[in-house]
Amino acid sequence: MVYVELIAGLILLLVAGDLLVRGSVAVARRFGVSPLVIGLTLVGFGTSLPELMASLQAALLGAPGIAVGNVVGSNIANILLILGGAAIIAPVAATAKGLHRDTLVLALATVALIALVIAGVLPRWAGVILVLALIAYTGSALVLDRREQASAALREHETETAEAIPPANLGLWGGVAFTVGGLLGVVLGARLLVEAAVVLAQSWGVSETIIGVSIVAIGTSLPELATSVIAALKKESDVALGNVVGSNIFNILGILGVTAIVSPLTVPAEILQRDAWVMLGATVALIAAVMLLRRIGRATGAVFVGAYAVYVGVLVAAASA
């Protein structure tokens, strides 16, 4: 029964998240909001909604291992599994304008998270700082990208992303219904997913952290996986890189920030002993590939995926001990 609840919660979370994005986009279109703004805000937020709701529900249910583990595990999976897999499909060029700025922000956010993990707590004031940092980063990125000629590619991509969502003739009230229904669905789906994950951890005799950094993290990262694989198949693998970097920044600054504001967290020691350093290593490897190699080729992608397989093996060994 717990497996049914886990799968049902994950499916509901993903489907409802899609409905929420489609509904909010329909409402935004009815009010004349530009596709660029829709792409940069509603669509981008929608792909990270599963992680946000799962971590919030975990914090409210008193499962910090899942709340923090979901973010740390998602960042690891995004780099090693998702970006590595995308690079195997099609080599990723790391030449997009603004990429160095974004990877620097990711590095700073990762260091901040490591510091909080070492401290062992994620207090409300730290959550406020993380969210303010996200707002500052997003605002500055929008301003800089609008000023730079090279930002035309970004604007084109974000516009195409928003316009790729079919209107479905929802109308204003149809859009509102999709939005409200989607919001209720993601809340319920996240609750089912987290409750099932807690029961699963207890029945398997493993920590909530292991479930959080593995099953929950991979499940909530499915939107990023779909986006990156589709981009790679279309030979637009640079989109996959931007998707992963942006998602990882939002995971730390936005998801952990909001979660800490709603419910301050105690970080499980297990994350400090293992997962935080894997996340740091994956982030350093990504930054090195971007800064030094200027690309992530198939060989590097295979190394990334292989490293993720080793990490999963370590988790399995820890669960079996």
Automatic annotation (TrEMBL):
GO terms for biological process: intracellular calcium ion homeostasis. InterPro entries: K/Na/Ca-exchanger (IPR004481), NaCa_Exmemb (IPR004837), NCX_ion-bd_dom_sf (IPR044880). The chain crosses the membrane at residues 6-25, 37-56, 76-96, 103-122, 128-145, 170-190, 210-233, 240-264, 276-293, 300-319. One of its GO terms (cellular component) is plasma membrane. One of its GO terms (molecular function) is calcium, potassium:sodium antiporter activity. The keyword Aminoacyl-tRNA synthetase does not apply. It is a multi-pass membrane protein. It holds the Pfam family Na_Ca_ex. Keywords: Membrane, Transmembrane, Transmembrane helix. Its main location: membrane. Residues 6-138, 176-315 form the Sodium/calcium exchanger membrane region domain. It is found in: Membrane. NCBIfam families: calcium/sodium antiporter (TIGR00367). This is Cation:H+ antiporter. It comes from Caenispirillum bisanense.
